[in-house]
């Protein structure tokens, strides 16, 4: 019975590989500043104005087809071996998935972060979310530089530059947090990571910057989005007084992330929570 399932799965994979060979574009939902799918009531399909060449600029021929088939056979064979050998470990995988969908008790986190308070954490997390969305909407991402990881900040900056070139603006407002849970917790190299499930209602639509006409979405209807957001922070105590990298003045990062002398943003790996990932899980 087990082998029949494996054979059936291999046939299914072969069908998918065959369809992909027809060069149908494959889009995946990635972490983005655009939070909702406007076509289903809310822009993962938002057009950045770029042309993607799925053919990689090659005509292929029989050589490409042979390489493709060979690679597909090797991949499917290895996959079948892995499925067969790991059959006895499925209960472990299921346990991991279940854990991430179940709320983690506050007491478990307090073992590593004694000062952790769930309500206080979600107030801070929701504030980071709102500040980031407002900064995104107003093209002022630098204001939230200190609460975003470098990867997230750079990605959002690139997306905003493209949006500005297109003469468009993403309006996001009137946020309401309706549900929040901690569904994951981890500590690696003195860095705490909390994965949350947060359901938020808000208005989200795109307008033309000049005419203010709505191009995507609905300005009269809220969307409700369930996010999976990951926040991280250092568990190592940092000095509160540091030198501004721009002018050298002493700055208290516990009270401000902006130098009072030259107004430069201060990015410090402090004990504050920082948004590392934000994904749209579901919306209505």
Please, could you describe this protein's structure?
- The structure is a single chain.
- With 284 residues, the protein is α+β, with helices and mostly antiparallel strands.
- 35% of the residues lie in helices and 25% in strands.
- The protein is built from six helices and seven strands, in the order ααααααβββββββ.
- The chain has helices at residues 2-21, 61-85, 90-101, 106-110, 118-137, 150-165, and strands at residues 168-188, 191-208, 214-217, 223-234, 241-243, 250-252, 274-283.
- The strands form two sheets. Strands 1, 2, 3, 4 and 7 form a five-stranded antiparallel beta sheet that branches. Strands 5-6 form a two-stranded antiparallel sheet.
- Helix 1 (2-21) runs antiparallel to helix 2.
- The longest helix has 25 residues, at 61-85.
Could you outline the blueprint of secondary structure elements for this entry?
Blueprint: H1 2-21, H2 61-85, H3 90-101, H4 106-110, H5 118-137, H6 150-165, E1 168-188, E2 191-208, E3 214-217, E4 223-234, E5 241-243, E6 250-252, E7 274-283
Antiparallel strand pairs: 1-2, 2-3, 2-4, 4-7, 5-6
